[in-house]
Amino acid sequence: MRRSDPQKTAVRLPEALAGLCAAIVACRRCPRLVAHREHMADEKRRAFREWAYWGRPLPGFGDPAARLIVIGLAPAAHGGNRTGRIFTGDRSGDWLYATLHRFGFANQPTSTHRDDGLRLTDAWVTAAARCAPPDNKPTRQEFGNCRPFLVREFQYLKRVQVVVALGRAAFDAFWAVRRAAGHPPLRPRPRFAHAEVYRLADLTLIGSYHPSQRNTQTGMLTHAMFDRVFATAQRLLQA
């Protein structure tokens, strides 16, 4: 399968947001992550040997008029790093986009590659780190290198009312973005919990366990638990 044009998007993005996406794709700030993502793209997995892997950082994806932002951890080596779209081509993405579809945020329940016709409505999906990391664990410095991208996404997505943080790393990234954007820290610091709702002056944050295979296969996260998170998001947006 051919690798898609990095400038091709499902919808036409405003100039500032399109420029940010292009800057993310071109980023080489983290030598360890650059080496790993490119090695995975060259080595490939046997099941995907016909693919031309993306092998670059992943920009956010979705509706530029979104009121909902979903933050994940980082691309998977043979998921987003292969397909070129965040949360696409792995089991976590299967869970996420099927759920977004059930609650009316996506036009289809599957996300398999950049040209599969998926469209999001009122939702934007992004991540705390943009490159596939070894062992799925970016370092503190690597998270910090990516943080300005997430700060700018929040600046350019001007209608955001609800944020869903998938996992503790995404939860921590959200609060780091708040600090970087000049919001005063909350005391005491909010604690991460699944389906917990954190109401702030300008938006609402909802915590969720990440739909990783480790969580879904062990029953730590069930479909009902995940639906509860997005039902809450939907209700808040309809209020």
Task: Give a written overview of the molecule.
By secondary structure, the protein is α/β, with parallel strands linked by helices. The chain has a single domain (15-238), classed as Uracil-DNA glycosylase-like domain (Uracil-DNA Glycosylase, subunit E, 3-Layer(aba) Sandwich). It is built from eight helices and six strands; from the N terminus they run H-H-E-E-H-H-E-H-E-H-E-E-H-H. The chain has helices at 15-25, 31-43, 80-83, 91-102, 140-156, 168-180, 213-217, 223-238, and strands at 61-62, 68-72, 123-127, 162-166, 197-199, 204-208. It has a six-stranded mixed sheet.
In a nutshell, what does this entry contain?
This protein is an alpha/beta fold. It has helices at 15-25, 31-43, 80-83, 91-102, 140-156, 168-180, 213-217, 223-238, and strands at residues 61-62, 68-72, 123-127, 162-166, 197-199, 204-208.
Task: Give the arrangement of secondary structure elements.
Layout: H1 15-25, H2 31-43, E1 61-62, E2 68-72, H3 80-83, H4 91-102, E3 123-127, H5 140-156, E4 162-166, H6 168-180, E5 197-199, E6 204-208, H7 213-217, H8 223-238
Parallel strand pairs: 2-3, 2-4, 4-6
Antiparallel strand pairs: 1-3, 5-6
Helix pairs in contact: 1-5, 5-6
What is the share of helical residues?
25-40%
* Global geometry: globular
Instruction: Give the helix/strand class.
Output: alpha/beta
Counting H and I runs of at least 4 residues, what is the number of helices? 8
How far apart lie the N and C ends? 44 Å
CATH class category: Alpha Beta
CATH architecture: 3-Layer(aba) Sandwich
**Averaging pLDDT over every residue, what do you get?**
94
CATH fold category name = Uracil-DNA Glycosylase, subunit E
Question: How many domains, in number, for the residues?
Answer: 1
Number of strands: 6
Order of helices and strands: HHEEHHEHEHEEHH
**Low-confidence runs of at least 5 consecutive residues:** 1-9
* C-alpha-based Rg, rounded: 17 Å
